[in-house]
Structures are given as structure tokens and as C-alpha cells.
Description:
Elements: H1 3-22, H2 34-39, H3 42-45, H4 49-55, H5 64-77, H6 81-105, H7 111-120, H8 125-129, H9 135-155, H10 167-178, H11 187-199, H12 204-233, H13 243-262, H14 285-299, H15 304-319, H16 345-362, H17 364-386, H18 392-402, H19 407-419, H20 423-436, H21 441-453, H22 457-470, H23 475-487, H24 491-504, H25 509-528, H26 532-545, H27 550-562, H28 566-579, H29 584-596, H30 600-613, H31 618-630, H32 634-647, H33 652-668
Amino acid sequence: MTRRVRLFLQATAIAMAGAAVYSLSLRGDWVWDDAPEITGNPMLGDAHGLWRIWFAPASPDYFPLKSTVQWMEWHLWGPSPAGYHLVSLGLHVIAALLVWRLLARLKAGFAWWGGILFAVHPLAVESVAWTAEMKNPLSLVFLLLSLRAWLDGEDATGSDGRPRPRTGLSVACFLAAMLCKTTVVMLPVVLLLFTWWRRRRLVMRDLVRVSPFLAVSLALGSVTLWFQQQRAIGGMDLLQGGPATRFAAAGRAAAFYLGKCALPFNLAPIYPRWDLSSPTWSDFLPWVGFAAAGAWFWIRRDSWGRHALLGFGWFFLNLVPVMGFAPMAYVRISWVADHLAYLPLVGLVGLAAAGLGELRGRMRLQAGALAVLAVAGLGWESARYALIFRNEESLWTYTLARNPESWTAQNDLGRVLLLQSRVSEARSHFERALEINPDDAEAHLNLGLAFERLDQRPRAIGEYRLSLKLKPSIPEAHYCLGNALIAEGRLPEAIGELGRALQLRPDYGAAKENLASARNNYGVGLAGAGRWEEAAVQYGEALRLKPVNPEAQFNLGNSLAQAGRVGEAIGHFEESLRIRPDSLETRMNLASALAQAGRAAEAVDQYERILRAAPQTPEAHNNLGILFAESGRLAEARAHFAEAVRLKPGYEEARKNLARAAALEDNRK
């Protein structure tokens, strides 16, 4: 078998292994924050969205290259999740292939098996089956390409025998990786580790070579910290504690990830959050173990210890950004998460491949059996776990079975049940979430929605207010409170809440629609009290929010006419008629306003149009008769008055007008 054929078959095996594990999950729905990030993201469907993604982002993180890929996906297959799942799987397979080639480049003994192991490892499931985490395989692909370019530069030499580094290409790929997800920020240190591993020493030139990478890391790392503080966290208490708590949490997190990489079973989307508010000496034991292992590796650095330092170094260095030292919104939910170990996993996979390669050199049969069993067992576990992500109900039900104290899972399962109209069940989950975490603003909002569905509006209003007390920046809470206040008839308060919802989210279409309606209805109440000018202001605001609004145009015309501003009223009646030309009431009021403005001929035309459409309208006959009488057309006026009386015998005004017209006609004779 030629080398090219062997490489093709190995690559095919890696791709097929990944496809086999995730084939059933490709039909999965949106889960967790997929919906707000994709289907609820207005930038993805906007033709100018790319500009906003790069230069005016509204997201809690600045990962514009990742968002650009999602923008392209949206324009390819819209809101259908299947295409997004396929892209995530494709990126993961590409990453696994690059892991294989990296290990082969480093002369790891069983590199191909390492690629398959990464492709089927259960710790990768969250990054592949959860569409919002597509940024993990995407960033890893660029990171591995950057590392490959660096290594190529290390090996390239010119005619003079001196190195010809390819730093520019490597930095460009690293920049792309950082623009996908900044957890790859530790690459400059990883590159120094690789350089030491290959040469067993570092010189000043090596530090100079990594300086462009360091500049990218510092710049985009600072941007990410700003976005986390200002957008994702926004003043929220992350419960990270002081330096001792963070140090203890980091050690326990590293030990947790190390254990899950080695034995990836009993995985969960959200793990219980350890209480480290008062850490004890035992909470720092992982650091003692790591220090001892590191010292042992260093002592044996002239042999196998050097390789262990490279593999474990990759693992620990790439964990640093997600160990809890830096503020990160996710740590409020849990100190650890599978998707945060996706990049560090590569280092341990490399060690496993190298170790199995050494074993194969001594015990070929046993090594082969171990390799097959490991891939089969891990692949089976990954396929089973990936199915958990097929929809939100299965995801959160599974999570609560393993972590019933997860207030996030309680709240999110309640939200799913509420959408299914299982309101009582949803309410119990929201209440349980608030028992665990009384400061969860989203759970208060969702409990309010459940109370509204149960016709307990006063309790709903109370929950909305609690939600806003905890987090005033939730536009949905202002919107829901505004709607509840409308139902209670408290329009001025409702207008204030809906207005705040729009301030927080200017593209909030439902809030804009309901605010326009509320202002219009408030204007109706003011007009009923004879406060015409104030009513006109409300109608004007309604029209600013919703210009195509025939009802508000009509009401504004009435208020202006009542306030003596007849000329302005005419324009609004005409605009209302343009939108709703079959409204006889609007045409009647327009005709009346035209008559008041001295535009009798136009008024006559409007009344005649009314009578052609509805001949049995006594008011139109009466008003047209008045105009005819004023212009001296007494016979026609008398006929219209008579018709008005015939149609409405109790119509006293028309009866009196008929008598006057008859008298005037007799006098003329």
C-alpha cells in the first residue's frame, strides 16, 4: 500500500468515526442559547449585518469571525438547525484531522489513533452538538493551522542554511483563531513550550519571534475582558470570592478536567458548583499533586519527561483562561464545563497517542486491542451523550437528573414546559429555581409569565417588578410588565415600561407595536375627558412609533378638530382614508372638517361618496343638506333632509333643518 493511499484511508477513518458518533444528533433542534445567538440575532438576517458584527457588535462577546460564519450560514439555510449542526461536525472532523497531522509531525508513535480519539472523545460532544459552541472547533482549526505554519517555519531553511520562519502566516491564523474565540490566547506561551521541547533551550530570538503573537493576545484578550465585564457580566456578582477561593477553584477545575479527559463518563451539561466560599486545606491538594508531577517530569526531562511536559503543558496552559482566575459569566453557573476543555484535550490526546505508540512497539497485539476498545467505548458514550442535545427538554431533564440543584436547568426546563402550555409544571420549576437562587432575574420573569397564563395577573406584575429590581436591563421584563399593566388599565405606567423596553432594545418590534397601541388608547381616554391637546400628543407619539396606523390618524384628526385645529385635522383624516379607504366614519369626519374649513365643494364631494357607498346614512343626508342650503340649493337640501327624517324618524336636527328649508323655499317663492 502506497503512503498516499494509506493517508487517504486513515483520513477517511477519522471522518467516518466522527460522522458515526454525531450522525443522529444532526437532526437536533436548537438548545440552550442557540436561539438568541442565531434565530434571535437580527444581525444574521440583516444585509448590513456583517458591518455591525465587526464594527457595532451588540453581543456579549467580540468573536466577529465566528459571527461572520454564522451570518453566511443564515444566508445559506436560514433558521433550519440541520445545516449549522453539519458545519459544526465538519469543523470538528477537520480539527481531528489536523490533530492527527500535528501528532504525526511531532513523530508521536500512534498519531492516526490520536486523531480518531479526538474525533470520538465524549468531552468534545458539547462543542459539536451544541451549535452555539461552534466557535470551539472553528477556533481550534485556525489555532492548529497557526501552529503548523510555525513548525514549518522552524524547519524551513534557506540556501545559506539559516531558518526561514513563516511568522506572518502563523500570526494571521492565530489572529483568525482569536477572532473566533479568545480562549486560544495562550498560544504565545505554547509556542515557547514547543520550541523548548524541540531544542531543549530557549534564546532571545525565540522571545522576539513570539512577540507578534503576544501583541495579538494582549489586544484581543483585553477586548474580551471588556466585553465580559460590560456586556456579559454587567455588574452581576459571579460569586468567585477572593484570591484564595479562585486559586482553590482553579486547582479543583484542573483536576476535574484531567479526570474527565481520562475517564469521560457521567458527563453533564451543567455540573454542581462547588462551595469554596471558605476553602479548606484539602481544596488546595490538587496544586500539590500538580507541582509534584511537574517536578518529576522536569527531573526526567532528558527522556520521557520532556514529552510529558509538552502534553501536560498544552493541557494546563490552555486551561488557564477558563480556570476561574479571570472574570467569566459562566462561573456563576458552574466552575467547570465540558466545552471549556475542548482545546486542552488535544494535549492529553497527544500523550495518549504517544504512549500507545510506545506500547505498540513492545506489545503490538495488546496495543491494537486497547486502541480498538478505547475508540469503541468512547465513541459509544459520545453517541449516547450527543443524543441528549437533540432538544431542550431532553437536555434539561438529563441535567436535572444529575444536578437537581442547577437553577439554570430548573429555569430553562420550566421555560420549555411553558412553551408547551404545561403551565403548572413550568411554575413548579421556576419556583424551584428561585428557591435555589432567589436572585435569578430571568426565573422571576418566567414565573411572572406562568402566573399570567394562570390568570393571576397581580402576582405576575409582582414577579416582573422583582425581575427588574434585580436586573433593570432586561427589555423582555419591561415589555411583559407593560403588557400586564395595559390589561389592568394602567396605561401611563404601561407606556413607561414599554418605552424602557424600546430604549434597551430599539429593534424590539412587539414592544413598539404595543407601545403605539397603548399611547393610542391612552389618547382615547384623554379625549373622553375633553383633554384634546393632551390626547393629540399621545396620538402623535403612537404615529411616530407606527406611522401606518389609520386608527391613530383618525383619532388625532378628531382631537385636532375638537381643539380648533381643523386644517391640521384634515391632513390626518386624509391619511387615515388613504390607508383605510372604506372607512365611512373617517370620510364623514373629513367631510365635516372640510366644511368647517370653508371648503364646501370638497365637503360635498365626500358626503356624496358616502351616500354612494351607503345611501341609508341619515347623518350624511342631513350634513349634505346643510351644505346645499348654505349654497342656495334649497330643493336639493330639502330632499336630503326629508330622506334623513325618513331613514331616522327621531332625528330632530334633520326635522328642524327640513322645516327651515321648506320655509326658506316658500319665502323665495
